[in-house]
Amino acid sequence: MTNLNVLIASYLEPELVEQIRREVPQVTVHYHPELIGKPRYIADHGSLMERTEAQEQQWRDLLQNADILFDFDHSHRDDLAELTPNLKWIQATSAGIGQFVKRMGYGDNDWLFTTASGVHARPLAEFCMMAMLMFAKDFPYLRREQEAHHWERYCAKELASSTLGIIGLGNIGQEVARIAKAFEMRVIGNRRNPSLPVDNVDKLYGTDDLAALLKESDYLVLATPHTPETEGMIGAEQLAMLPESAVIINIARGVVVDQPALIEALQSGHLGGAALDVTNPEPLPADSVLWDMPNVIISPHSASTAHTENQKIVDLFCDNLKLYLAGEPMINVLDVELLY
User: What is the distance between the alpha carbons of residues 118 and 223, in angstroms, rounded to a whole number?
Assistant: First the structure.
């Protein structure tokens, strides 16, 4: 295979760029931080910048010769195919890229896409555990009492022996299950073939037996990909099946849940709380009642982002580069039909 040009399309720490060059010297790595947006926070892969005419031409020249992109070029979403005649593969920096690839029509090109699946499993699982602990220990009550400078003993719950339902037992769902078992929770989940066991899951249901899973779930974690089958899968009927005072945690996509129905279930008191890393739409409008509900935790689609993210993605990218050069099956290849 002839020498390949790798273009890094979002900010990386210089030492990580050098890691790619060191580990995979067969490729030429092009990294020009002066042509891409400055990160607003650690592991920011979406910042843009205003380029001068000369800078824009320099970037287009780099795209023209790029064989591999590290991350999507968000400054040329619509005309990427026109500007990258040699492009063969894009390594994404997020896991849930299926709908984006479909929406942009990228799947119509003869490109490979690999996701960052697995990279964000630990921080997302920690977010889920944080949310469950906050509701089990009635953090809203503690906050109100603290603001009132009021000291009054109260009684909280344990997570042990409560039932956690997980919809979506991929890397993230399995990591949630693993940590939940350390708290001695009972873990249930669903998958297409429930006869195949999953570590740390006590009971498996088929995807056509959602009602049974919901009726047992004191806490429900949504970690499923966004596909036509999962869009709107949790509506008013499904929310009503959850036990009284159940807590729902959505780290999937906002459209997986009927948001008006969720708000109604929270306001009625049927649900004890919700932790939402994703909403519909995003950003969550400033006038949404969800902002001011004491039993709701809002995270700005950032539960997956941690200070270790870039290192993990670069490790994955280096592994994939070596596999690609060797002509071997790569890690996390996106199925453009299934969208995950």
Answer: 12
